[in-house]
Amino acid sequence: MAQLPDGEPVPDTGVLPESALADVGGRGFGVYLHVPFCASRCGYCDFNTYTASELGGADTEGYVEAVLAELALAAKVLPAPPRVDTVFVGGGTPTLLKPAQLGRMLEAIDGTWGLAAGAEVTTEANPESVDPASLRELRAAGFTRISLGMQSAAPGVLRILDRKHTAGRAPAAAIEAREAGFEHVNLDLIYGTPGETEDDFAASLAAVVGAGVDHVSAYALIVEDGTRLSARIRRGELASPDDDVAADRYLAAEAALSAAGLGWYEVSNWAADQAARCAHNLLYWRGGDWWGLGPGAHSHVGGVRWWNVKHPAKYAARLGEGLSPGLGREVLTEEQRHTEDVLLRLRLSEGLPLDVLDEAGRAAAGQALADGLLEPSAYAEGRAALTLRGRLLADAVVHSLLAW
Ligand SMILES: C[S@@+](CC[C@H](N)C(=O)[O-])C[C@H]1O[C@@H](n2cnc3c(N)ncnc32)[C@H](O)[C@@H]1O
Ligand code: SF4
Predict the structure, then answer these.
(1) Are residues 24 and 81 in contact, defined by beta-carbon separation less than 8 angstroms?
(2) CB 127 less than 6 A from any atom of ligand 1
(3) Which burial class, exposed, middle or buried, applies to 52 when counting CB atoms under 10 A from its CB (0-12, 13-18, 19+)?
(4) Would you give the DSSP letter of residue 10?
(5) Is the CB–ligand 1 distance for residue 219 below 6 Å?
(6) Ligand nearest to the CA of 190
(7) Is the CB of 153 under 6 A from ligand 2?
(8) How far is 32 from 294, CA to CA, in rounded Å?
(9) Nearest bound ligand to CA 40?
(10) pTM (predicted TM-score)
């Protein structure tokens, strides 16, 4: 079957090249489900999400029906994939939907492809959008893992980020989640927010450690173009995040989390043990296959990447007419696949096999080793794995290994 040129809309019959379908499952198979609703928009966020006034007539029931319709089309494109190893429901705010609505879509995913025994099933949640009863319902619906957007324990930082929850709500929700039977609980932190002090971030780290979660993600604040945060910085109301401050915060995170028994396994992610690592994200980072359901969701199967229309009303309208919600797709070139491989796998503690690199890349790895950016023991075993200093300079190491 001929490959489609870059960017050509996905045909409504939704076919994939045979080359992409070969060995589906050999690389792991996951499902991402995007829930594009938020009660209000945080000033720093440019995710594909809509508040009530922006929905243009779309509603959550229509959304659930549309997702089920996309799943029916997906079953024709991937009729007999392997079982689903991981499901990740992200947003937006998935927990703006009722647990029963989330459970219905999860059941449909299981009914379409079948969840593997012991599959990891995660939902993201805003701390103020869950309570002990809804957490128990989510657990009963089949969710095994929950990821709560805490961001900070400092009230002033939460205010600058436009977060609606109090400082104590996220750790409290994490404890409630464990009591509801969640095996794995993650708290997300953002560091380097303008106005955040060293003490503020130390308090955030103490709070995640005190909550006893088995996973923490900590990301430096990114100022995305077109957001309210970026406009406020441009107007001089807030300072720009500072790279040196971000590096200090990262070192503080590593010190506090490792002292609490959480080890890094990806530059921005720490886990208590192997079982606590996010299998869904590992599948992305290791080049696995996944189907992305929902408005704006991206998918990847065997080197073919495609993405859906972004607005929930348009997404539902397309599916209502029996059409694919796909907006475009590209077949990755060998070079693009290599670049992604290096970019993603170098950020993992397990590192990147040196034999993936070309000659110039291997020479650059030798230089990175000499500069103290790669671990000597891993290097001796044929892998490029970042040292702590290397993690601070991960982007620069990637650039050098790709000889950009
Ligand atoms: C898109 S949110 C979805 C989860 C949920 N709505 C929430 O905010 O808690 C997932 C995570 O992305 C991170 N995030 C979003 N925008 C970011 C930005 N501009 N810079 C750094 N992290 C960001 C936050 O840590 C957030 O918890
Ligand atoms: S709640 Fe989460 S997804 Fe929604 S706007 Fe805020 S950061 Fe973005």
Answers:
(1) yes
(2) no
(3) exposed
(4) P
(5) yes
(6) 1
(7) no
(8) 8
(9) 2
(10) 0.95
* Strand blocks (E) in 160-296: 184-191, 215-220, 263-266, 269-271, 289-293
How far, in Å, is the centroid of ligand 2 from the Cα of 158?
A: 12
The one-letter amino acid code at 363 reads A
Ligand 1: centre distance to CA 127 (Å): 12
Could you tell me the distance, in angstroms and rounded to a whole number, from the CA of residue 336 to the centre of ligand 2?
30
| pLDDT tens across the length of the chain (404 residues) | 334 444 444 444 467 877 788 778 778 999 999 999 999 999 999 999 999 999 988 899 999 999 999 999 999 998 777 799 999 999 999 999 999 999 999 999 999 999 999 999 999 999 999 999 999 999 999 999 999 999 999 999 999 999 999 999 999 999 999 999 999 999 999 999 999 999 999 999 999 999 999 999 999 999 999 999 999 999 999 999 999 999 999 999 999 999 999 999 999 999 999 999 999 999 999 999 999 999 999 999 999 999 999 999 999 999 999 999 999 999 999 999 999 999 999 999 999 999 999 999 999 999 999 999 999 999 999 999 999 999 999 999 999 999 86
Q: Which of 191, 216, 219 most suits a substitution to test ligand 1, by most atoms within 8 Å of the C-beta?
A: 219
| Span from the CA of 149 to the centroid of ligand 1 (angstroms) | 7
